[in-house]
Design brief:
This protein is α/β, with parallel strands linked by helices. It has helices at 4-19, 25-54, 71-74, 79-95, 117-130, 137-148, 164-174, 191-203, 228-236, 246-258, 311-322, 336-339, 343-354, 415-421, 436-441, 463-490; strands at residues 182-184, 211-212, 218-219, 239-243, 266-268, 282-287, 323-334, 356-364, 377-384, 390-395, 399-401, 409-413, 431-435. Helix 10 links the parallel strand 4 and strand 5 (266-268).
Length: 495
Amino acid sequence: MLTSELKQSIDALWQSFWSNGMQDHLNALKHISYLLFIKKLEDTENNKIIAAKDAKKKYESIFENNDSMRWSVWKNYEGRKMLSHVRDKVFPFIKNIKSNGRLQLDLGESNFEITSPILLQNAVQVIDELSISEQNQDTQGDIYEHITSFLKTAGLNGQFRTPRHIIRMMVSLVDPDVHQKICDPACGTGGFIINAYQHILKKYTSKDLLKVGSDGVTSNLIGDKLSDKQREFLLNEQFSGYDYDNPMIQICQMNMILHGFSHPNVKFQNSTGKGYDQGEEYHVILANPPFAGNLNKSEINEDFSVKTTKTELLFAELFYNKLLIGGQAAVIVPAGVLFGSSNAHLAIRKLLLEKCQLEAIVYLPSGVFKPYSGVSTAVLFFTKGGKTDKVWLYDMEHDGFSLDDKRDPVEENDIPDILAKFPKREKSKKSLSISMDDIKENDYNLNVRRYIDNSVPEEQIDIQEAADKLDGLKKERKKSEEQIAKDLKELGFKV
């Protein structure tokens, strides 16, 4: 859990970027990530040198014969000297790092775009004061989570940040384990990957070691019950992520590094485009893919059976394609996927219902993604293989935050109720199970209002009673007007 001092430092960091001309949140976050990586790289290398010395082994640091690349060497340079040094020497240096067991950030064709010496100096000072590597793993992750919370602009094709409490709910309901390969084909900042990783660590941490903060979030996830083999798989093989936005890839990688990954398996890839292998590969898929985008037909992977250019429908089929038989998915889709009338919409719903076990649909309140979007969405939970018998529906009305742009905390929260009722698919005012026969009778329409109606019933109005009341009011008005006219006449006014 972050201290108020750390939060203030991060806020100051963002303010520095804003006041010095870098007001694009995504670009600012990208460059904060670069600087965090440069700082983290030296700290990690220093630890490896110490460990090698203790083990009486030789370790050739990346800073061997490159001492001027160290953060500790140039952090006190004068502003202009610092800017030219970082831009022309340090940044190209980290771009060309070959992994060989070292931290690596895939920078692709990125450039260092900070042009203000004052901004760079201020940013370096704040990051240095954060003492990232001196914090425990939980705090390192929390620092970056707080940094990414300032990302307030939606990306291309309907891409936006998924609220962390919604991610935690989805991960808890899927309950991934250490032996499963997990993927997010539209990973963004890495929220699903990080939370699935933390969920598994929690399962394998002794209960007496766990700590719960005032915000209800569990920390000290050390995974002391993991075997060496399990930990190796967890950190190096278990998680995969893809995104079609290079800055997002870099941000996701940095997020994973600060949560304990040394070699994040996150790659630049158009998951719906040509060249992406859609073969069965994963046990679990967790995702919130781009909404409301349309692709050029020439760019779409030929492996799709559903003929459409809509990204939300293509991703829905992609999830099915990438899952192994028996694999599980928890994915967010716009509500239109559940009741759209096109042939493609119908084909996707039949795929999920007839070639999968569509286990549950949680309909989210329309304000969940504000201030980015007010689009209505739902979470689909399905298992590849078999066929659907019943689908559990839950009409979520509250998620613990106001449903306006402010998204302030409120008491009303359906998430605990969902977590409690999901295992046995319990019926309530907001939930019920519907049969496949019912779904077919409704032409495969999964609009929640077909099955659950929580709307406030309209008040029944007695027309005659209302007419009599209106007539009475008219008479009272006439009487009042006559009295006013009389009073004015008595006072000498012409009426």
